[in-house]
Design brief:
It is built from 6 helices and no strands. It is mainly α. The protein has a domain of 123 residues.
């Protein structure tokens, strides 16, 4: 029974040691948590400094895309009196698809709302152009197609391209 007092002493010292370790941990834990949060804030700041220019550039490209697919601007670029309505229709559709494919990677840096606006405007523009070409006779000229598209846009209560640009700008302002 000589082991019994030694065993009791070992248990007392172990419990006391664990108590000291536990107290030390809870005294040091707030310092460690604060240090970790400071490092996390610094990391986020560094990442933000690197991605912010890319995000701004992406929003610039999105605005440029919206301006380029606006039929009022696109028809000026593609204007040639020699085109038939079918030829102009094919050019417009190809231009829309090329512009979209050229800017598709911007969705990584813009919000999902901004990219939804881009996709919606592209789809709506295709719809406007397709409906306009269907409303014309087969022998129509490109000028007639242009007039029909612009007439359709003028009948709209609000310009969807201006609304889209405002939504993208509002979305961009949320970054700051």
């Amino acid at each position: 029974m000589v082991l019994y007092p030694y065993l009791l002493d070992i248990i007392k010292y172990t419990v006391a040691g664990l108590g000291v370790v536990w107290i030390a941990f809870y005294l040091v834990k707030p310092y460690l948590d604060r240090s970790e949060s400071i490092q996390l804030v610094e990391l986020k700041k560094t990442i933000s400094n690197q991605t912010l220019p890319l995000q701004l550039q992406a929003y610039e490209r999105v605005v440029l895309f919206i301006e380029r697919i606006n039929p009022a601007n696109m028809l000026l670029r593609l204007n040639d009196p020699a085109y038939s309505a079918a030829e102009l229709h094919m050019l417009i559709v190809a231009e829309l698809r090329n512009e979209y494919q050229h800017n598709v990677t911007q969705q990584i840096y813009v919000s999902s709302n901004a990219w939804a606006v881009v996709k919606r405007l592209k789809d709506d523009t295709l719809g406007i152009v397709n409906n306009a070409v269907k409303a014309l006779p087969a022998a129509a000229t490109g000028l007639e197609l242009s007039k029909t598209i612009l007439a359709h846009l003028s009948h709209l209560e609000d310009n969807p391209y201006d609304i889209g640009l405002n939504l993208v700008r509002r979305d961009l302002q949320e970054l700051f």
